[in-house]
Amino acid sequence: MYKLIHKDGQAKRGELHTVHGVIQTPVFMNVATVAAIKGAVSTEDLLGLNTQVALSNTYHLHVRPGDEVIRKLGGLHKFMVWDRPILTDSGGFQVFSLAKLRKIREEGVEFQSHIDGHKIFMGPEESMRIQSNLGSTIAMAFDECPSSTAERAYVQDSVDRTTRWLERCRTEMKRLNGLEDTLNPKQMLFGITQGAIYEDIRMEHAKRIAEMDLDGYAIGGLAVGETHDEMYRIIEATVPYLPQDKPTYLMGVGTPANILEAVERGVDFFDCVYPSRNGRHGHVYTNKGKMNMFNAKYELDSDPIEEGCGCPTCRRYSRAYIRHLLKAKEMLGMRLCVLHNLYFYNTMMEEVRKAIEEDRFQEYKKMRLEGFEQSSR
């Protein structure tokens, strides 16, 4: 159940009550694609970084180690030793990202495994069964994510098929949740709006799936090549047609600035690989923009990444030491940068929630964006 606590303009402050705990929104979900954050970050670490939700991927876990294996081990929560909420992506994005390895038809999608090339078929029912085996808190509906540059006729056909798939997902999830041996009979289902950069298709699709009374609604198919301005335009066009009394999730977004802009437009769930991916390459987020820890000027710098930061990295280690580790290709260097970045994102979301509660989100957003413009240090 989603509870809308307060609004500041269109910015929403809410709570999603789940079988694995309450999620305070707006929230950034830390991406654990294969049941782990890349960068040697444990679930114990995540607790110390104030992580609320971990996000894992249906397709990747189906391929390796196998969803049946995870089910036999008690489900994804036990497998990765995480008792807080987990959202599982449906595998639909791989329809987009593995374009050269797949064939789409009404029944579903035939993939070629990116690991060993063996054929995999996944449709709405298969995606729901895999996610049920994983026992995640929130399951995402199986969809197709068309390219932002796709022709209008193709996008319309794709969106119509995604709607039909969503009906099948809902039917199958209801069946699975009613089984005696299901791992999580209270598993939630979020639907996904698509439509590339066509506003009218987006709005119509949002209206259609809003009628299905799902647990939440995602905006998919953005941050896949369109400009930031196009992304913000589509968010503005879509959100008003999604239920205000349900969470709205912008998939795969994004930078701190992207998140602030989307919060302003009524989005309250986010995920992105940026904190971990950039951290592994020595790029860290601060209140004054991004820093490249490989920069020679940090060679003798005994300061933490950011003064006043409460993350495990900044409480103990210097820029000089972290730079040394990165240059020496020591895994600890990557780990320390990823820990800092995840803490930065989670802390920013705490501040966002407080600012909305106190009706000063616009002031907070302006202050943040001005600080980020000092990047490239």
Automatic annotation (TrEMBL):
Catalytic activity: 7-aminomethyl-7-carbaguanine + guanosine(34) in tRNA = 7-aminomethyl-7-carbaguanosine(34) in tRNA + guanine
GO cellular component: cytosol
NCBIfam families reported for this sequence: Q_tRNA_tgt, tgt_general
Top EC category: transferase
InterPro entries referenced in this protein's UniProt entry, alphabetically: ArchSynthase1/Queuine_TRR (IPR050076), TGT (IPR004803), TGT-like_sf (IPR036511), tRNA_ribo_trans-like (IPR002616)
Keyword entries, A-Z: Glycosyltransferase, Metal-binding, Queuosine biosynthesis, Transferase, tRNA processing, Zinc
Name the record gives this protein: Queuine tRNA-ribosyltransferase
Source organism superkingdom: Bacteria
Binding note for cofactor: Binds 1 zinc ion per subunit.
Keyword NADP: no
Binding residues for Zn(2+): 309, 311, 314, 340
Catalytic residues as annotated in Swiss-Prot or TrEMBL: 89 (proton acceptor), 271 (nucleophile)
Function: Catalyzes the base-exchange of a guanine (G) residue with the queuine precursor 7-aminomethyl-7-deazaguanine (PreQ1) at position 34 (anticodon wobble position) in tRNAs with GU(N) anticodons (tRNA-Asp, -Asn, -His and -Tyr). Catalysis occurs through a double-displacement mechanism. The nucleophile active site attacks the C1' of nucleotide 34 to detach the guanine base from the RNA, forming a covalent enzyme-RNA intermediate. The proton acceptor active site deprotonates the incoming PreQ1, allowing a nucleophilic attack on the C1' of the ribose to form the product.
Subunit structure: Homodimer. Within each dimer, one monomer is responsible for RNA recognition and catalysis, while the other monomer binds to the replacement base PreQ1.
Region feature RNA binding, mapped onto this chain: 252-258
Keyword Repeat belongs to the record: no
Pathway(s): tRNA modification; tRNA-queuosine biosynthesis
EC number annotated for this UniProt entry: 2.4.2.29
UniProt domain tRNA-guanine(15) transglycosylase-like: residue ranges: 10-371
HAMAP family attached to this UniProt entry: Q_tRNA_Tgt (MF_00168)
Sequence similarity: Belongs to the queuine tRNA-ribosyltransferase family.
Organism of provenance: Parasporobacterium paucivorans DSM 15970
GO molecular function, one term: tRNA-guanosine(34) queuine transglycosylase activity
UniProt cofactor(s): Zn(2+)
GO biological process: tRNA queuosine(34) biosynthetic process
Binding site for substrate: 89-93, 143, 194, 221
